[in-house]
Write a structure and sequence with these properties.
Number of domains: 3
Number of helices: 2
Strand order of the largest sheet: 1-2-3-4-5-9-10-12
Largest sheet: 8 strands, antiparallel, barrel
Distance between the termini: 54 Å
Helix content: under 10%
Oligomer: single chain
Shape: elongated
Strand content: 35-45%
């Protein structure tokens, strides 16, 4: 089964990726008995939600979407998942829907006048497994019949809403890929995959800061151990440990704020081991603020300069950057203590800096979507990135005004006027927050 996190299905010059062989599956006895668990990709966010409004000129069905599905038909079903899909229009009036979660691309009829999308069976031809077994693959849309306890393969239609960029499916409507043992497609041998489709939701592209001369200055090269994208590749089927493949990246410092840096085009330079996999068309940057070494911010809202043809452009950031970005232009630094407390409550780790080494303790990202959601890889062993700055590059003093007022917050983010001994608080003074134990 292809997964959103399976960038390992790509080819590479330095890191060779190998696709897993499809496996036939049998339905669980009862659909409802399969555990419906939340994906690790779902992360709680502080109390602010962006409203998804598409621009008037962005109402075409083409674009990148969040795909929500229920993988609940097999005993090893993963439950509710959020993946990424792309839709493009074809010259013959059809559309093609692609996703790394799909066994194959899906082609559907599209009536642009009514915005109706119709899914029907599609014969996809012969497929040979690594074992040498040959089958004939067919895409089969269908509906779960609860009374019969089975899937009924049938055509059905859904409607694209150009006003909000959504496609909502009726309950129990699914995508399936059935294997047949004969070329007439009459003898079914089992499913390659089957899941309920809940919705597609289109989002605006992330706003990208233009590259402007004079706003950044080169300060040498940083060493990147990449936990954002490298862990999803493999060599001869064996997962890659990013620590084995560090590379040098151009480091630049902001002219306006000496504590703000960026890695410039980290995934396109010659030393990057996955540069051969990269289809990005943008200058890439990973921007971070080291003002508070205990709470380094890897900022959201910047394309990292890594993309795939099926999943679009990726942004790389950390959990604190994700939480801050949720407030959009309304963010005020006075909210930082509350955000710190919220992240502590939900076990969301911070990015920290010790000496010249920045450690992103949990990498998160989005791809070609507004950064109001964060994703992390499932089923990988390495989800940490490190950025080692050139010696002395990060040595800027954090000057705290000793006369500035001190404010305390509890771990729920509420202001505490009289902190009591024996409790843990977040102490904030002159924009610098630290976690303390009150004695």
């Amino acid at each position: 089964m292809k997964k959103f996190y399976s960038l390992a299905l790509l080819a590479s010059v330095a890191v060779t990726a190998t696709a897993a062989a499809p496996q036939l599956k049998t339905l669980a006895p009862v659909k409802a008995q399969v555990q419906n668990t939340l994906s690790e990709e779902t992360l709680p966010m502080a109390t602010f939600t962006k409203i998804n409004l598409l621009a008037d000129d962005d109402q075409s069905i083409e674009g990148t979407y969040e795909l929500t599905l229920d993988d609940v038909y097999f005993q090893d079903g993963a439950g509710r998942l959020v993946q990424t899909a792309a839709i493009q229009k074809n010259a013959d009036g059809t559309i093609t829907i692609s996703s790394d979660y799909f066994v194959s691309d899906v082609t559907a009829d599209y009536d642009e006048a009514t915005n109706a999308i119709t899914f029907s069976k599609i014969k996809l031809g012969e497929i040979t497994l690594q074992s040498g077994a040959k089958y004939y693959l067919q895409f089969e849309p269908g509906v779960w019949d609860n009374a019969a306890g089975d899937v009924v393969a049938q055509s059905y239609s859904v409607t694209y809403n150009p006003a909000d960029g959504t496609i909502v499916f009726p309950a129990d409507h699914n995508f399936g890929w059935m294997a047949y043992s004969n070329a007439l497609y009459t003898q079914s041998a089992g499913y390659f995959d089957l899941f309920d489709v809940i919705s597609f939701e289109k989002s605006q592209a992330v706003e990208i800061d233009e590259v402007e001369d004079g706003k950044w200055t080169n300060v040498g090269y940083a060493t990147l151990v990449d936990g954002w994208f490298l862990p999803t590749f493999s060599i001869d089927g064996v997962g890659v440990n990013p620590a084995d493949y560090p590379w040098e990246v151009q480091l630049q410092r902001s002219v306006e704020n000496a504590n703000v840096f960026r890695l410039w085009e980290p995934y396109t330079n010659f030393d990057c081991p996955i540069a051969g996999n990269n289809s990005s068309k943008y200058h890439g940057q990973i921007v971070f603020d080291i003002t508070d070494p205990s709470h380094v911010i890897v900022k959201a809202g910047y394309y990292a300069g890594f993309a795939t043809t099926s999943q679009g452009e990726f942004c790389a950031f950390d959990l604190l950057g994700y939480q801050i970005n949720g407030f959009g232009n309304e963010f005020d630094e006075a909210l930082l203590p509350q955000i710190y407390a919220f992240m502590e409550q939900y076990g969301q780790p911070f990015t920290t800096m010790e000496g010249d080494v920045i450690t992103v303790n949990k990498v998160v990202f989005c791809n070609s979507l507004a950064c109001d959601k964060a994703y992390s890889w499932n089923n990988v062993n390495y989800v940490t990135s490190t950025i080692t700055l050139p010696e002395g590059a990060g040595m800027t003093d954090v000057n705290v005004d000793a006369n500035a007022p001190v404010v305390y917050y509890n771990l729920q983010g509420m202001k505490v006027n009289n902190p009591a001994a024996g409790n843990v608080y977040i102490r904030c003074q002159d924009g610098v927050a630290t976690k303390i134990y009150k004695r």
